[in-house]
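Appendix B, example 12.
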Amino acid sequence: MKKSLIALAVIAAGFFAADQAEIAAGATFEAPDEAADKLIADGLAKPADQAAAKPTKVVKVRLLIASDHGKANDVRELPADLARTLVKSGEADDDKAAVAYAAALPQNQKKT
C-alpha cells in the first residue's frame, strides 16, 4: 500500500525508489508504507491528511433568533465562516458590545 504525504524538505531523487524524481518541499506525493513511515519519522514528510486539519478560527456571537445553534440572546463560539454567514443573514451579531450584553444575561451565566 501507499500513503499520501507532503514533503517538509527536499527529498532526494531515488530516496525510496530508483525511478523517483526529486520531491520539492511542500509537494504532495505517494510513497510505499515502509518508506512513508521512515520519511515521517525522520521529519522529512507528514501525512497529507494532516494538512487539512488546520485549527478553525472561532468567533463569539450573540444569537438574535432561535435556531439550531441556540436560543435568542445565547452567546456561542462558532467557526468564523458560519459566524460570518449568520451575521450577514441577521441571525447573529458579532459586535463586541452585543456579545458582552448577552453574556451578562442570566441565560448565559454558568450554573453552579
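The chain is about 25% helix and 25% strand. The mean pLDDT is 86.
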